[in-house]
Amino acid sequence: MIKTLSKLLLALLMVSAGILHFVRSGFFLKIVPDYLPFPLEIVYISGVCEITLGVLLLIPRFSSLAAWGIVALLIAVFPANIYAYQHQELIPAPQIVHLLRLPLQAVLIWWAYWHTGRINTLLVDETKRH
Description:
The protein has helices at residues 2-23, 25-30, 39-57, 63-76, 78-86, 95-114, 118-129.
């Protein structure tokens, strides 16, 4: 029950964030590192990925794969969080907010990883050893 609710919340978070990439693209454009080409396309592509992965997370057949995709996406966009921290003038917020976004990404990665099914496999394998 908890895992089902967690999966639903993660899916809603991903779909909502993906929609925001289109509704508030200017915000996301600010944090695309300036060394990357095609920033608007990157914002839109990441938005499509977030929406797609969020929806797929709710389809049992694709759930584990979608969770792995979310992990990969969160790792791929992490440089944007670093860039936002390094250029805090781009998004007016207290310094602590920018700092907390960095470890929050690790929490989100762990949350998605929990839904890959890999943690359960590791726990079962560990209990078989003892």
